[in-house]
Amino acid sequence: MRIERVDDKTVKCFLSNEELEEYEIDYKDFILRSDKARQIVQEIIEQAEEEVGYQPPKFAFDLQIMLLPDQGLILTFSDRDAEARESDQFIECLKEMKRILQRTREKIGGNNTAFGENQPSVGGGAEQENGKAAQEQQISRPSFAVFVFPGIGSVMEFAAMLPSNLMVESSLYEMEGLYYLYLLKGRASYERYSRACVQAMEFGSLYAADESQVLRLKEHGECLIAEKAIKKLRG
Questions:
Q1: Could you tell me which residues come within 8 angstroms of residue 75 by beta carbon, excluding any fewer than 6 positions away?
Q2: The pTM is what?
Q3: In the prediction, which pLDDT does 26 show?
Q4: C-alpha span between 225 and 169 (Å, rounded)
Q5: Cα 152 from Cα 115, distance rounded (Å)
Q6: How far apart are CA 221 and CA 78, in angstroms?
Q7: What angle do CA 82, 185, 6 make, to 5 degrees?
Q8: Can you tell me whether residue 69 is helix, strand or coil?
Q9: Which residue of 139, 145, 187, 218 has the smallest Cβ count within 10 Å?
Q10: What are the structural domains, with CATH classification, of the chain?
Q11: Rounded to 5 degrees, what angle do the CA atoms 105, 107, 110 make?
Q12: Closest by Cα among 66, 77, 61, 62 to 27
């Protein structure tokens, strides 16, 4: 269990797959807020107090859950006012998505065509630098994410609060009793797409921003709505 202090009111805890097995727990327990998950959360808070001087809020805190493919989970505890929380949640979301894409890129030797990245040209240094800058911008602004929800009702609530003219693309899957919304930027502006991602985390949690996780959903999950899921759930 690795705990990091983000700021005065926020800490992160990384739980490896081995630790999850040792605790006999997985991300579904945290999504569904099981008694076992509550015990682990309390243990993490106590350890954070000892190791990094974290002072948990007196009444309540935000818990964000993110699955790291083949690695484990990241739990983020925060105590912030609503306005700051919305901004910080998406910033953290983007950072984790960026890290996942960078790791994926490194594993396949930098030729990450799955995310629309091109190899640098053999030409002059300026051209290579421009290509590198474009790649970095592409990585730092992911165009899709997968969110997991505890029930179909939560997905419908999320869909109902989104603007009817939001031009994102979406698909809905069910796997092992949980519901997964594959949300793509589509023709929406990045600002509106970003806000939709933040709102998704009010009802569920970020599952992953790794294409391999989407493939896993397609292979092992059941596709309930192949396209325009948000529009169809809104009714």
A1: 12, 13, 15, 30, 41, 44, 63, 64, 65
A2: 0.54
A3: 84
A4: 11
A5: 29
A6: 32
A7: 40
A8: coil
A9: 187
A10: 2-80 (no CATH), 144-234 (3.30.70.1950)
A11: 40
A12: 66
